Amino acid sequence: MADEIKRRREEDDDMMLFIFPAMYMLCGTTNSEKIPRHISRLSGKERLQEILEGHVMDCKVAFRMEPHVFKTIANYLREEKLLKDSRGLRIEEKLGIFMFMLAHNASFQDLQYEFKHSGSTLHRHIKSIFKIIPALTYRFLKLPHANQTHWKIRTNPRFFPYFKNCIGAIDGTHIPITIDGEKAAPYRNRKGTLSQNVMVACDFDLNFTFISCGWEGSATDARVLRSAMNSGFQVPNGKFFLVDGGYANTPQFIAPYRGVRYHLKEFGRGHRRPRDYKELFNHRHAILRNHVERALGVLKKRFPILKVGTFHRIKNQVRIPAAAAVFHNMIRLLNGDEGWLDNQPDNIEPTNFVDLPEGDSEYQNDVPSLSNQMISGNNIRDMIAKKMWEDYVRN
């Protein structure tokens, strides 16, 4: 019996001598050894250079803009001393990290893999760009000059002189938000998801001229507008924006007639012409107000992070829509192309998009300061619409 036990122990020892080297070869290291995380042949700087100097589509996919636009924006941030080069990380790389995050909703793990920097380095430099978004918003989102009528109105007899005092269009849009459970209730929208209600104004060149972020998803569009006005959003005297039915019709915010054909598809091929001054007004109002819907469509196609929940702290989540609007305007100012977006697949898997409501379809009479101006607004709208109809019938 003793000989049998000794033999089995010797066989077990022989087996262990075989198993341990095999396990070592499979694992590649012992627990005491560390594998370096960033072992790519390309550093973050070299990866950026590869994107900027490669095929133009590489830059469009990575940063949602052309290389020359990217370089011009980086130079602007440097010249205006909004950002500074730091040891081992130039402004171009900081901007690239931020734009990649904005374009792909990239996590810090994704950014570490892409740009070969530590999580703390990435966090620090993304934070530095979030901090300058308010300053960039002030510089690049500006209301049009009050004494000028936009050429799209001035040169088109369908719109001039009726809309000569119109300086743009306003809409509300929901952007997903990620927030702790005990704070989530006010952000729950009518679809049951969590969002912030963002108000934007744009001109007829599809540039954003104002943005208000951070209101809870349960808030109505009219309440967000009132908040913006209380915070300094002012419409020049005698001018107005076009709004949809979710807002009160006032002298400063002209809405379409309720209960009357409005959407462009209702006036499309095969549908009857406008039958009265209200339908004619609604049709032309819809054509002009469609600019804000188009601008939002381009913005969300360029930056699909606006369709998903993110990992950022609330303060920065609120600044993401403003950042997207700022870079949208800068890209357009530098003649960046956006036609390529039409056939570009989303950078983010559409199954991750949050189900969000459209803007309000009807004004809820929940803002007394706006409701009190509706009689004056209705008189101005009637005056415009009846003059428009008179000319339409005569011609």
TrEMBL record:
A cellular-component GO term for this protein: nucleus
Protein name, UniProt field: Os12g0299600 protein
Annotated coiled-coil segments of the chain: none
Cell compartments where the protein resides: Nucleus
Residue intervals of the DUF8040 domain: 40-133
Cofactors demanded by this protein: a divalent metal cation
Ranges of residues in domain DDE Tnp4: 170-329
Lineage of the species this protein comes from: Eukaryota, Viridiplantae, Streptophyta, Embryophyta, Tracheophyta
Pfam family, one: DUF8040
Keywords: Hydrolase, Metal-binding, Nuclease, Nucleus
Main location: nucleus
